Each structure stands twice: as structure tokens, then as C-alpha cells.
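hiii, so i know i said id send this last week but things got crazy w the move. better late than never?? heres the sequnce for the chain we talked about at the cafe, plus the structure i predicted for it. fair warning i was half asleep when i ran it
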Amino acid sequence: MKVTILGTGAYGLALSLMFNKKVNDIVLWTKFEEEKSLIDKHRGNDKVLPNVKIPENIHITTDFDSAINGANLIVIAIPAAYVDDIGKMLKGKIDDKVHILIASKGIERDTCSFVHDILLRNVDCDNLAVISGPSFASDIANMHPIGLSVATKSAKTEKLLKETLQNDSLKLRTTDDIVGVEICGSIKNIIAIAAGILNGMGYSESTQAMFITESLHDIKALINALGGNKKTILSYAGVGDLLLTATSNKSRNFHLGYLIGSNAGEDIINDYIANTTIEGLYTLKSIYKLLGNKKVNMPIIDLIHDVIYKARDPKELVTFLMTKK
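okay and structure toks below
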């Protein structure tokens, strides 16, 4: 059994440790030789996942073809903006027996496509799954109890993931609602930015809880409007991930919002954006455009978009909450 993880960011590294509990052939791929050398030398990357060591039996490579050759399961754990590139690299190189697990979250900016649709442009794969849920990479890596949603329409892929990934510290709950899980995984990062703004402005946890509750209602309606199962909002990918991402300063999206809400200064905010992967910023423009294309009304997204990109007063978030029907 060979598992190949494309991406050596915090989440990719953390997932390699989870698979390592049951799988004896794991390959991590990065296109950056400097990153490979760093991980090889220190058996970890303290910049993205401090104080976590990667076992010697997990192999790191920059050779894409050797990484995917013979893989039974390929895990995509890169920023959503680069999934199309990976799809093109995979095109024509895997057979119908290979399983693919998508851990990337977001919506493509130009096309408004979800990640699984981006991949399927170039890769013909029936054994496809999407994973999402309340899980900081550091918590996964340190073997804290974690629950994740896995969405797949393939019984074979569901079985494989439960056999290789589920263990005594990681619980999987499965669904066939790929669209719903992807919506939850994408939009929670945007909501987390707004929750961080509220926190930065000094509003109480009670106000933040109010905001999260109102957001849950809107996300449920969005899932339904885009063809998903509205019950998915009650899953690990839904309320679970939203609660975590929108309440913790360990969340990069929440922290960005905090910097904005607390008037940290343009230089500090821009430096944080330049040196941190903040999926919510990428996804905000995408979902704003998607809602317009689909003629779906979601005022909270319009407001967050205008606060971030049009200098709208963040205090209007509270006005919105109090006047929302």
C-alpha cells in the first residue's frame, strides 16, 4: 500500500503522520528543492508545523512521477489556487484503480469551480473523496482526538480511507455530499475572517457566537441552493469546522480578521498576508463572484467582501447582525 501526499505544508505533513500509523509506504512531494532539503535535514518544518518530527520512513521527493508511480492513494494537500496545475500534472498518469483524496479547500477564482471539479477537468477518477473538518494541523500531528468528514460517492474509497486513515486519534464520518462538504470547507474561512474582525474590535464572545449562529443559517441555505444536502451543516465539515476556525487565534483567517479589526496597521496586515497562506482571502473573491453568477442572495458575504476590499466600516457587521431578518 502506497500513499502519496502532494504538498508539504502543515496539513500535508500532519496527514502523513496519520497515515503512518497504518501505512508503511508514504511519500511526500514538494516542487521546491529547498523545502525538501529542509525537511530531510531536520525531519520537519518548524516554520509551518513547529516541534513536530517526520519519521525517517516517510520519504520526501521533488520527483513528481516517482512520487505518484505505484500509488494506491494520492492525497492533494496544496492551496486551492494550484489544484489545476496538479490536475494537469496528473493527466494521463494514473489508472482507474487509484484513489484520490482532496484535502485542499476553496473555490477557483476565474471559474468559480469547487476543488473536485477543478481536478476532474484533467483527471478521470471515480474513486474520489474530499476531506474536511475541525482540525488544526498541529492538533492532528500531536495526536489529539480529531473528527473529520469524508465525502465520496465511491464505496471502495470510503473503505480504503477507513482502513488507512481512521485510527485511535482520528475519527471519520462519511457522506456522499461532496458539494456540501466543499461549500462548508470553503466558506468557513471567510466567516472566520469576519469573526476575527469582531474579536479585534473588542466585541464579546457572546456577539461572536451570535455571528456564528447567523452564519450557520446562511451556509445551510447556500448548500441547498447549490445542490448539496443542507443537513451537511451539522457535520464535522459544517458546524464543527466553523466553530473551530471562527473562534481561535490559531486560525490564520481569524487572526487576519483580528489584525483588521484591531487596526493593527497596513504594514503589519500586508506582511501577514504576504507570508501566510490565507485561503479565506482567495475564496472570498471566488464565492462573491459565484453568488452573483448563480443569483444567490447572501448579504453576509457581500458585506465581508466590501469590508475587506472596499474599505467598508467593519462596525457594519454588528449593524447587520442586529437588523438581519
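btw The longest helix spans residues 178-200. thought thatd interest u
miss u guys!!
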